[in-house]
Amino acid sequence: MAGAPRQGRGELRAQPPLGRRCPRHPSPPTPTPQHVLPRRNPLLYRINRIEKLTGLDLDRHAHRELARLAVVWRDTTGGDTLDRPE
Question: What is the reported pTM?
Fold first, then answer.
């Protein structure tokens, strides 16, 4: 039977929640572990996207430091501080 507790070695073990949102079978979302590293392809895609949008070459140390400084600046100032036209 799908969704029933598994029986193993004499005791019943409950199934962990899948964390999916379904109107018929609601369950709370499972927390994401903080120690999970990003996958290789999405990480490379993001790096390439940053290089394309900023014109930086992240293989160069000076460009990586500029990118890091921009992130630190954003985090310490509370976000985007530029006044943008509407």
Answer: 0.49
